[in-house]
Amino acid sequence: xxxxxxxxxxxxxxxxxxxxxxxxxxxxxxxxxxVLASMGHDFVHHxxxxxxxxxxxNASDRTERIQSFIISGHxxxxxxxxxxxxxLKVDRIHQRMMGSKLGAAIEPVYSFVSMSEISExxxxxxxxxxxxxxxGEDPTSATFQAKVASYEKRLPxxxxxxxxxxxxxxxAMCFYPMNKARNxxxxxxxxxxxxxxxxxxxxxxxxxxxxxxxxQLVTASxxxxxxxxxxxxxxxxxxxxxxxxxxMRYESASARFGQFGSFYTGYLASGAEILEHCVV
Length: 280
Known about the structure:
The protein has 280 residues and is α+β, with helices and mostly antiparallel strands. It has helices spanning 2-10, 33-39, 41-55, 87-98, 125-134, 142-163, 193-208, 238-248, 252-255, 271-277, and strands spanning 23-31, 65-71, 78-84, 106-116, 172-180, 182-183, 186-187, 214-220, 229-235, 258-260, 264-268. It folds into 2 domains: 23-116 and 268-277, 2-Layer Sandwich (Alpha-Beta Plaits); 160-265, Alpha-Beta Plaits (2-Layer Sandwich), CATH 3.30.70.1030. Strand 8 and strand 9 form a beta hairpin. The N and C termini lie far apart (67 Å).
């Protein structure tokens, strides 16, 4: 009887709030120029405030994280990236935008639904110590102890950055979805965990060379969208986006097992800047 009770107590209550992490939404849009023209100049001029209220981060139903971007190229004209504990708050911004007075002139062209997570390849204190030993560190040395202690101190901030990351106010951004390959002879999910961990460590090491120039957010979309992960990169200069993607594609995790969707490149912008740039 007590066993039955304890099992029942362990069953979580229904909720939209993740046990760990935040919901994330990437939304990409294009202006319908013919519809804008049919609305008339005066109507569009007065309707802009309705659009700005929908996309503004100061809106009453603001999500925990939100940024908007001007998108370069013909895939889209602008985009929003949002994170919140409630997935409906994330989607509400999209619905408000589509329901605004300019909504009929806005065409959604792509969206990506995902959640933040702590990667299984992020080593804990013990795994980090074991890695140091494998690379020749003396576990009895003061240097070894200092490195392990320093890593243990950094872990909480590393967890927080993956679960509830701050969006940097850096000017350049690119987003792309990705899968790990399931090809014959190159099936990521049939590789031993130790081999996958080693490849991801190599991948991370290359990324660390861009610290201070590029920061990334990897969100999981397994079971939520068509791809397995979404990668968002922010950079202090667009050139760094090109350099980091080029550099990291040489690692086995990407070269042998990476499958990538379309890239969307954008530049941080307010709603007013989006309207001005897009000549609305």
